[in-house]
Write a structure and sequence with these properties.
The complex is a heterodimer.
Chain A (H helix, E strand, L loop, with lengths): L7 H15 L5 H18 L4 H25 L4 H23 L4 H12 L3 H30 L9 H24 L18 H21 L3
Helix pairs in contact in A: 1-4, 1-8, 2-4, 3-4, 5-6
Chain B lengths: L4 E9 L8 E7 L5 E5 L6 H8 L9 E9 L2 E2 L5 H4 L3 E4 L12 H11 L4 H14 L15 H15 L3 E5 L7 H18 L2 E5 L12 E6 L2 E5 L21 E12 L2 E12 L2 E6 L6 H8 L6 E6 L2 E2 L5 H5 L2 E4 L12 H11 L8 H10 L16 H15 L3 E5 L7 H18 L2 E5 L3 H4 L5 E6 L2 E4 L7
Helix pairs in contact in B: 3-4, 3-5, 4-5, 5-6, 9-11, 11-12
Classes of the chains: A mainly alpha, B alpha/beta.
Organism (chain B): Ligilactobacillus ubinensis
Membrane topology (chain B): Peripheral membrane protein
Protein name (chain B): Energy-coupling factor ABC transporter ATP-binding protein
């Protein structure tokens, strides 16, 4: 039997539910379990190369180590435990987030949030357009710098003039795009053909509730080390 | 089902305290015809189209009198998805009309807007793509397409919506002559075969002979009907006299370009002559803008570029920007300040030839470009496309970098403006001994006036050989 991925909307809820609780749960074991399960899920359902996952984990190492080290240095009571909690927490956050971002495309996620969790479609298409324009933004940034240097001005990152230009250009782009979308019939607040979403069987809702309750029970009542 | 589009006593202004842009216009669009709207830049052509499409006043401005009726209902009172079934618009800036990432997704998006049944969407997408011979583009990413290809996809989107009336606001501004002919051919086919009503604004009259049923003009805020006879003049595109100078500062050695592993330009060695204006020609997507990108260090390239025998990478970025001036394809990319006055003053302050650009000379140029009827406190982003273009070119001419690259400085200009801008470019180039290179598709007007023509064909850059072409 072929394993099927969870619906992106469900995955989003699980990530949010567990991620929020992780902030308050003080358990190295739970952080490790969340990280391991997330890695497993990513490896099975990934849309990226294994190498990317490896790099993500590697790049985070200094951050986790830094967090661990600062508690070792400056912690007062129970510093070994606290240091390991914060060190592993960085990975728990990262990997549960990656379980969503490395397995689902932005479009799939937004469409499913709109289809199953009633996210507004105006918001969905606005965001999608923004994501689709991202490759252009970098090019545009270079252009803004060059246009200023040609006229004898150099923008520094702390100068408001730079951001003013970016904002003006973004407004121009979004204005043009909004007009085009209107002309193509996009009407705010009106029915459209239902978006193409993935199936969301009832058992996935059950799984979400079960996982979140289990995490709450372990994190706040059992409290493993 | 017949569609009617009628304009009654329409007066429109951008703000309450400004004079109107259009005044007391009466107009009825004849169905199943091919129509062309002409007029000098800034006269209100785009404004008129956006009003017809119901985008104004929703996105700006105010109708101070009169109304626009689509099937006897005020066009502004019709919900966009209903409106799209009768009328849709194709915009000047090809890349800014897509919400989605791929061609297929984009057309699907439009069809979802008009609530077409999911089961019919796939079929309809396949049908329009085959009608416009875009089958190979189905899965392509929109941002990787050339301007002409993007406009054809936008047209496919409108055809999918099955809009009766198709408005096209300078759809060819960034499109090369071959793609332009193809698009015009597609449009005529839509009129004859699918009974669409076509309405285009354009500055360039070439290739319209025999296509246009009605010609309209906007002059002095009024819409009038003109004679289509002005389109019949057949103009032969003259040959450039190749007079490639030998004095130069900017040279390149084995310069080659590629984009996404696709080779655009084979290794090439040449220079830009001093005190001359050259034309860089070639079909859309051959890499003309990318070539400018390489010379300005905006995009990656292989090979070496030299200025006064010194390797370009040895110059700091800031210094390089003072050597190579670039007039961007999008005017708004150029502007650094908010008003016309600030823009010109900035250039004057940092000009590399302050002795040449005296106040009176700047004023003369300003007058030549016919910008004097504008308040100098006008916000640059609110100028019309043509006015922005002229201001943009002027502010870079005042800067007067020794090498000046202009990417489509003549697009969306009416013929008087076009000649004046070109005249100014030539004058300044000769006076200050600049090395100037222009990308333009207005070959008929440009060729007779310039010194040499470089062409990119078959991935090579070379001086254009003399073959006759119409």
């Amino acid at each position: 039997m072929k394993l099927k991925p969870l619906n992106p909307a469900i995955l989003f809820l699980i990530m949010l539910g567990i991620g929020l609780q992780t902030t308050f749960v003080k358990s190295v074991w739970l952080n490790c379990i969340v990280s391991l399960l997330s890695i497993l899920y990513i490896i099975i359902f990934r849309r990226v190369k294994l190498k990317t996952i490896f790099i993500v984990i590697l790049v985070t190492l200094p951050l986790a180590f830094g967090s661990w080290w600062s508690f070792m240095l400056f912690g007062t009571t129970d510093k070994w435990h606290i240091a390991w909690i914060y060190g592993t927490r960085v990975y728990a956050y990262l990997l549960i987030g990656s379980a969503l971002t490395l397995t689902v495309s932005v479009k799939q996620l937004l469409f499913n949030l709109a289809g199953h969790l009633k996210l507004s479609e105006t918001f969905v298409f606005g965001l999608l357009a923004a994501f689709n324009l991202l490759p252009r933004v970098r090019q545009q940034f270079k252009r803004i710098q060059y246009s200023a240097q040609m006229r004898g001005i150099t923008y520094r990152p702390w100068q408001p003039g730079l951001y003013l230009r970016i904002i003006i250009i973004a407004l121009n782009w979004s204005g043009d795009l909004a007009e085009a979308m209107t002309s193509q019939g996009f009407s705010e607040g009106y029915q459209r053909t239902a978006l193409q979403t993935q199936r969301l069987p009832k058992w996935q809702w059950g799984l979400t509730i079960l996982l979140l309750l289990l995490y709450t029970y372990c994190g706040f009542i059992l409290k493993p080390w | 089902m017949t569609t009617t589009l009628t304009v009654k006593n329409l007066t429109f202004a951008y703000t309450d305290n400004q004079p109107p842009v259009l005044e007391n216009i009466n107009f009825k669009l004849a169905l199943n015809t091919f129509n062309l709207l002409v007029g000098p830049s800034g006269c209100g052509k785009s404004t008129f189209f956006k009003l017809l499409a119901g985008l104004y006043p929703e996105y700006g401005g105010k109708i101070t009198a009169g109304d626009i009726l689509l099937n006897d209902v005020s066009v502004n009172n019709i919900v966009p998805f209903e409106r799209a079934k009768y009328l849709a618009m194709l915009f000047q800036n090809p890349s800014r009309q897509f919400a989605m990432r791929t061609v297929e997704e984009q057309i699907t998006f439009a069809l979802e807007n008009i609530q077409l049944d999911r089961s019919k969407i796939k079929q309809r997408v396949a049908w329009v793509l085959s009608e416009l011979h875009l089958e190979n583009f189905t899965k392509r990413e929109l941002l990787t397409l050339s301007g002409g290809e993007q406009q054809r996809v936008a047209l496919a989107t409108i055809l999918a919506l099955d809009s009766q009336i198709i408005l096209l606001d300078e759809p060819f501004a960034n499109v090369d002559p071959v793609a332009r002919k193809q698009l015009l051919h597609d449009l005529k086919k839509l009129q004859l075969k699918h009974h669409k009503t076509i309405f285009i604004t354009d500055h360039d009259f070439s290739n319209y002979t025999g296509l246009v049923d009605n010609l309209y003009k906007i002059e002095n805020k009024q819409l009038t009907k003109g004679s289509t006879k002005i389109l019949d003049k057949i103009i032969f595109s003259k040959q450039t006299q190749q007079n490639f100078g030998s004095l130069h500062n900017l040279t390149w050695n084995n310069l080659s370009l590629s984009i996404h592993d696709k080779i655009l330009l084979q290794p090439n060695t040449l220079y830009l002559p001093k005190g001359q204006v050259g034309l860089l020609s070639g079909a859309n997507g051959v890499g003309k803008s990318t070539f400018f990108g390489a010379l300005t260090h905006q995009t990656t390239y292989e090979g070496d570029i030299f200025y006064q025998q010194k390797l370009s990478t040895k110059y700091k970025r800031k210094a390089w920007a003072q050597i190579i001036g670039l007039v961007f394809q999008n005017s708004t990319d150029q502007f650094v300040r908010l008003t016309i006055a600030e823009e010109l003053n900035l250039s004057k302050k940092h000009s590399l030839h302050p002795e040449y650009w005296t106040d009176s000379r700047i004023n003369d140029a300003y007058q030549l470009l016919n910008l004097t009827n504008l308040s100098k406190q006008h916000i640059v982003y609110q100028l019309s496309g043509g006015q922005q273009r002229k201001l943009q070119v002027l502010s870079m001419l005042i800067m007067a970098q020794p090498v000046l690259l202009l990417d489509e400085p003549l697009a969306s200009l009416d013929s008087t403006s076009l000649n004046n801008v070109l005249q100014l470019i030539i004058e300044v180039t000769q006076a200050l001994q600049l090395s100037t290179l222009i990308i333009s598709h207005q070959l008929v007007e440009v060729r007779p006036q310039i010194d040499y023509e470089l062409e990119i064909t078959d991935k090579t850059l070379h001086l254009r050989r003399t073959t006759n072409e119409t």
